[in-house]
Predict the structure.
Amino acid sequence: MSVLFSFAVALLIFLIIFQIAKAAEYVAVLKGEQKSNKQQNKVNGFLMIAFLLLGLIGVYWCNDLYYNKTLGSIGAASDHGEKYDQMFMWTIIITGIVFFITQILLFWFAFRYQHSDKRKVYFFPHNNTLELIWTVVPAIALTVLVVIGLKNWFAMTSDAPKNAMIVKVSFANLLADY
């Protein structure tokens, strides 16, 4: 019950702050204050860079703090486990690189291209080359990850080798031990 109450209080605080900000914006428009909007735009740009840096530091700190408490720090118990861990690490590396590049670009562009009276907006409606690149490159990367995953899956679920030891476990024997 206290979690629900805390969530409701946080939501109400957010709504109050949002309404105050909207009211302040309407008052500024009615007064004709363009200067305050430009100042807010600069503040928002710097806050975006600060949020990016704090977020990256937080990711590094949490990884450093909690890595030993994850399964990644423990060695695999089988050959299949090693292949699975290796496949998982490649997936994390590839998606992590893409994540960091896109987030850094997102926050940098929000800071770099904030409103300026000196700059005119360039409308960029369509570019086949750009769309082809950002469609084909992720498709190739994901296809490689899926092919590696399927190869490992088929290796893990294939028939046992001819010289494999057969182990029979009786459910009744397991219950007798407890």
